[in-house]
């Protein structure tokens, strides 16, 4: 079981290393001190250091090499650019009025599926928010989100009826890393009902995780009817 002291040290190690990387103090290719040295520096167990480094590797900030250590990752010369867009802006770009409706809001102790979604090894309290975004009177997107309350405790006091969780989080918590996963699905009963489409309708699902120095912030699953949304990727040539 993770103690509060271990959790605090875990977050401190994450924040310190991420800060040095983002600031450029530790440039790409820089070898991070070995686990034993970091454990001595922070007066903690190697397991606590290992968990922090594993999380940084999952976020793409460092690369762990067997027998060689951990290194700050090199920036990719060619990549798809997928910005974190506000759904309201997407709707307004269609010249349609925007609104949203909170379908579910619940606070709970994190379950195993929450840990998988957040990619978090320890125990965590989460806030689950499900809402439907509308373009005019037509459902535009179904949002299913879990928020790490250990990283963003302020979210527990917000009902999200005036401002949906996406833009609220962007304004509240500076994020350093985001991961997108995109796939096609056939709408099941709950999604079909919320989006007012037939069961089995082709849908586009965008899943996104964001991290900060405090650890994972949120995981969101955005489901769009396939004929109502498109994604644009912009590439830059490699040198």
How would you describe this protein?
With about 240 residues, the protein is of the alpha+beta class. The chain has 2 domains: about 5-70, Orthogonal Bundle (Arc Repressor Mutant, subunit A), CATH 1.10.10.10; about 85-225, Chorismate lyase, CATH 3.40.1410. Helix content is about 30%, strand content about 30%. The strands form 2 sheets. Strands 4-5-6-9-8-7 form a 6-stranded antiparallel beta sheet. A 3-stranded antiparallel beta sheet has the order 1-3-2, covered by helices on one side. The model is unreliable at about 75-80 (pLDDT under 50).
The biggest beta sheet is recorded as:
6 strands, antiparallel
Helix-strand sequence: HEHHEEHEHEEHEHEE
Number of helices: 7
Measure the end-to-end span: 48 Å
Q: How would you sum up the global shape?
A: elongated
**What is the mean pLDDT?**
85
Question: Which structural class do the helices and strands define?
Answer: alpha+beta
What is the helix content? 25-40%
Strand content: 25-35%
Tally of discrete structural domains: 2
Spatial order of strands in the largest sheet: 4-5-6-9-8-7
Rg calculated over all Cα atoms:
20 Å
Oligomer: single chain
Low-pLDDT parts are 76-81
What is the CATH topology assignment of the largest domain?
Chorismate lyase
Work out the number of β strands: 9
Using the 3D structure, state the CATH architecture of the largest domain: 3-Layer(aba) Sandwich
* Fourth-tier CATH superfamily name of the largest domain: Chorismate lyase-like
The CATH class name of the largest domain reads Alpha Beta
Give keywords:
29% helix; 9 strands; 239 residues; elongated; 32% strand; 7 helices; 2 domains; Arc Repressor Mutant, subunit A; 6-stranded antiparallel sheet; single chain
């Amino acid at each position: 079981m993770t103690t509060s002291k271990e959790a605090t040290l875990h977050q401190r190690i994450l924040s310190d290393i991420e800060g040095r990387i983002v600031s450029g103090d530790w440039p790409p290719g820089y070898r991070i001190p070995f686990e034993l040295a970091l454990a001595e520096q922070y007066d903690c167990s190697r397991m606590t250091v290992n968990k922090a480094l594993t999380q940084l590797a999952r976020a793409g900030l460092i690369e762990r090499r067997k027998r060689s250590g951990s290194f700050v990752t090199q920036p990719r010369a060619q990549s798809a650019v997928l910005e974190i867009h506000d759904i309201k802006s997407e709707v307004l770009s269609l010249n349609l009025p925007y609104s949203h409706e909170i379908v579910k809001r619940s606070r709970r102790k994190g379950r195993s599926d929450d840990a998988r979604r957040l990619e978090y090894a320890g125990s965590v309290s989460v806030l689950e928010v499900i809402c439907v975004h509308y373009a005019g009177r037509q459902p535009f997107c179904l949002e299913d989100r879990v928020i790490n309350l250990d990283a963003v405790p302020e979210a527990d006091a917000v009902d999200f009826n005036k401002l949906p969780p996406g833009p609220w989080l962007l304004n509240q918590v500076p994020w350093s890393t985001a991961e997108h996963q995109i796939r096609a699905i056939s709408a099941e009963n709950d999604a079909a009902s919320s989006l007012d489409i037939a069961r089995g309708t082709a849908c586009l699902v965008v899943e996104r995780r964001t991290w900060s120095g405090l650890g994972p912030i949120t995981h969101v699953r955005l489901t769009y009817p396939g004929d109502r949304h498109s994604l644009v990727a912009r590439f830059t040539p490699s040198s």
